[in-house]
Write a structure and sequence with these properties.
198 residues; mainly beta; Elongation Factor Tu (Ef-tu), domain 3; SH3 type barrels; 2 domains; 6-stranded antiparallel beta barrel
Amino acid sequence: MIPGLTSATLPADAVEVGRLAEAWGIKGWLHVHPHSADPQALFYSKDWFLCPPEGRYARGFDAFTGVVSVTVDEIKAHANSVVGLLHGLADRNAAEALKGARIFISRQHFPPVAEGEYYWVDLLGLDVFNREGVHMGVVKDLMPTGPHSVLCLEYTLGMDAGDDAGKTAERMIPFVSVYVDQVDLATRRITVDWQADY
């Protein structure tokens, strides 16, 4: 196994935040491709979990199998990208061997957020109700649209949908304070000022 990598178990609250790309320089540094435009968690946590790549990135990957943990010695922004040095990687060959590995971080190691701000991962799966108590759906995704994000909900069509009753449909609600009254992570509930026929 490559020095610095330790066999591990992926934490239950692990979130995939990026992947390792090609080597950068000759001293073991790697390019990192974050999944977020604001990769705070990558910079905040010094403990990463790596999983083998999937799909087209998996071809020829044999650096490790299963899950491994690694300590980040240094990470920094470079031009329009992110580069990092993992503990134990001493040369370009070791860095290249990890190309494509998926990076996971325990959710508990994310940096704290300001009042009224949320990580997307914390909103996924929350039930959304309007002010009248009508269930609007479950958050399945969030979509950035530039000035704000949009909650993408999945809900089940009722009997009034005729032959489509029981099928799932999608509803979108802008994630802005004019429509979102409250986000309660403890009860996993979002209350909105929205009607089912919007």
